[in-house]
């Protein structure tokens, strides 16, 4: 076994290691089952758990110092690099030996009441005042709310002191023109803007008749990839705001495990936050989150044992299924470019088209209908691991007809470097880094770019 000091010659290759080790230290939890709703989050002791795995990385810059890896070794985590093999100047394999003494709680999503409880928390995110209107009484320990004095992201925070868990529930889309959504008129404009930013191929530039939400469109089916990444991370947009909410909740609840949940847009935000920080995330009727996850360069595990994000929905909901697009679709007519269709992590899909004879209708997206007619009535389906879109026999590919380009900085010509969406099956972890990124944080997403 080799020490870290023996591998200083490989230090320029280690830029992708921190996101993977963060995943390992957080996600070493097996999918478990527990039928007791009185304790619907199962405690699993990982004290004797050992994990050995080779991880493959594609490298584009050299920013990581070896002491960053040393910092991940604590009293409860022990990460050892056993072997590094460099195949070429752009990639390498790293063999990790990871031992964890941590315990963690995960929801039992084989249990109907557990799913219903989380769905009711997602529904409550649409209600301004707790215990009024459509509020569902899942607990008397609602401790906090956020965003209700503004016209952007909103929700509630639920706390269980006995099990030391805090659940953040993010509100989804409010729209008067889109059935099955919330009705808060003061957030409609910002909700729609973020829907079109997160779930469209390129700034909701569907045709020349549409008004794009960002200036990344270049030409017919050609889009500036760097521009898209920067716009999603913009401080005024929902992803960055949802991250700040998590940080504040974490600060206010030291020693508590934090989960995220939400419906529709709120579900997608909950999965992006969970993906960013290695949390448990459970979304309901969420649009595809994989497209935004890739643009944010979030770590995407290939191994189901390390992925604690679930998407729950029904097959009659075109938003969840990724089919609410095209010129005649309800979403398109209402001005929503819902072009993403791929989820990351796990899917639990209720086949309401086959079993309940439902027709595909955007009204089947409504969380209240889903709770009463689907989640409370139907048996829980087996979860299917989607992973990073490549975890099934038919890989899910987003925006296949688009070219995403990165204009060369300091160039006086109009030439561009084109990156096409491709499909590749693999069994290892992969972190793909933008060539324009010059600075990343400890979870792997870019914090500094070259100018152009």
Automatic annotation (TrEMBL):
It comes from Hanseniaspora guilliermondii. InterPro entries: AB_hydrolase_fold, ATG15_Lipase. Its EC number is 3.1.1.3. CDD domains: Lipase_3. GO terms for cellular component: multivesicular body membrane; vacuolar lumen. It comes from the Eukaryota. Belongs to the AB hydrolase superfamily. Lipase family. This is Putative lipase ATG15. The lineage of its organism: Eukaryota, Fungi, Dikarya, Ascomycota, Saccharomycotina. Keywords: Autophagy, Endosome, Glycoprotein, Hydrolase, Lipid degradation, Lipid metabolism, Membrane, Signal-anchor, Transmembrane, Transmembrane helix.
């Amino acid at each position: 076994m080799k020490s870290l000091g023996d591998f200083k010659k490989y230090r320029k290759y280690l830029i992708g290691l921190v996101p993977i080790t963060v995943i390992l230290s957080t996600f070493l939890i097996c999918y478990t089952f527990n039928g007791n709703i009185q304790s619907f989050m199962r405690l699993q002791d990982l004290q004797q758990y050992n994990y050995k795995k080779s991880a493959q990385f594609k490298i584009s810059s050299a920013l990581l110092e070896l002491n960053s890896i040393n910092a991940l070794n604590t009293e409860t985590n022990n990460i050892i690099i056993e072997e590094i093999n460099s195949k070429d100047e752009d990639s390498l394999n790293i063999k990790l030996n990871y031992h964890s003494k941590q315990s963690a709680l995960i929801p039992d999503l084989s249990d109907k009441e557990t799913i219903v409880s989380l769905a009711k928390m997602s529904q409550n995110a649409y209600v301004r005042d707790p215990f009024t209107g459509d509020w569902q009484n899942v607990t008397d320990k609602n401790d906090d709310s956020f965003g209700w004095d503004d016209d952007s992201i909103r929700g509630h925070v639920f706390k269980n002191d006995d099990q030391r868990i805090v659940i953040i529930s993010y509100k989804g889309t409010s729209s008067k023109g889109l059935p099955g959504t919330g009705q808060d008129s003061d957030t409609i404009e910002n909700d729609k803007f973020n829907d079109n930013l997160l779930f469209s191929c390129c700034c909701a530039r569907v045709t020349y008749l549409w008004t794009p939400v960002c200036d990344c469109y270049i030409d017919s089916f050609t889009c500036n990839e760097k521009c898209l990444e920067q716009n999603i991370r913009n401080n005024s947009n929902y992803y960055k705001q949802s991250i700040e909410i998590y940080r504040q909740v974490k600060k206010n609840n030291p020693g508590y495990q934090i989960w995220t949940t939400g419906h529709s847009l709120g579900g997608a935000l909950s999965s992006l936050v969970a993906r960013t920080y290695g949390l448990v995330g459970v979304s309901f009727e969420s649009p595809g989150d994989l497209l935004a996850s890739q643009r944010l360069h979030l770590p995407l595990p290939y191994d189901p044992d390390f992925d604690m994000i679930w998407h729950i929905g029904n097959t009659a909901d075109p938003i969840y299924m990724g089919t609410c697009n095209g010129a005649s679709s309800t979403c398109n007519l209402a001005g929503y470019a819902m072009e993403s269709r791929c989820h990351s992590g796990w899917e639990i899909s209720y086949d309401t088209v086959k079993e309940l004879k439902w027709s595909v209708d955007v009204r089947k997206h409504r969380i209240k209908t889903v709770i009463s007619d689907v989640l409370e009535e139907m048996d829980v389906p087996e979860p299917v691991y989607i992973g990073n879109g490549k975890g099934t026999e038919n890989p899910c590919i987003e925006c296949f007809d688009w070219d995403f380009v990165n204009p060369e900085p300091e160039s006086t010509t109009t030439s561009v470097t084109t990156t096409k969406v491709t499909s590749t099956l693999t069994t290892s972890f992969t972190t793909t880094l933008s060539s324009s990124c010059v600075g990343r944080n400890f979870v792997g997403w870019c914090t500094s770019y070259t100018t152009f």
